[in-house]
Amino acid sequence: MMDQLQRLREAKSEIENPHESERIRAIAEILTEIQRAQRAAVLDQRDQLDIDPDDDVTEVDPDVRSTEVLDLVDAYTPGGPSLAETWLARAAPEDLDVDDPAALANYAGLSSEEWEHQQQTWANSYRAADGQAAEATDRDLAELHVSSKWGVSLDRFEALVVNWDQGRALRDLLAGPSEATEAAIYANTEALA
What we know:
Blueprint: H1 2-16, H2 22-49, H3 62-75, H4 83-90, H5 101-104, H6 112-129, H7 138-150, H8 154-162, H9 166-192
């Protein structure tokens, strides 16, 4: 019984601190090595065939990738950053200005009612600061706020953040390098055609 309690304490400690867990780090390193080797093979193929597709695919940095995987595990633990925050920090599209992933994650997955209320709040702030804004719709003022703060249109913000999808985020975070390698394989084939 004491042995089971000790194992439970160890498992709890590993889950709460995945970056410090040898077992979780080993799993992250295995996944990283698979992704690194696949990418290296594709890049070696390019060198051997003397092709240069225009896709900006580079080597997988094992240290960076292992940290990304551990960050994903950390996003699933109590007290860690949320999965939305981790996705915003690690995998959000480049056109979205993500200066503060934790703050931006507050808008991820809002309900329709919550999103309408948020747009009204932004609009009311603009109206209070500028009397000329009184004529604009809540949506127009939310568009102004989002584009100036995060560099994307309101529609794009809704698609990326408000309608954030946990499944898509997991796929981006876990399989992103593998998907980029797969796309590079197709780019190599196209370059040879």
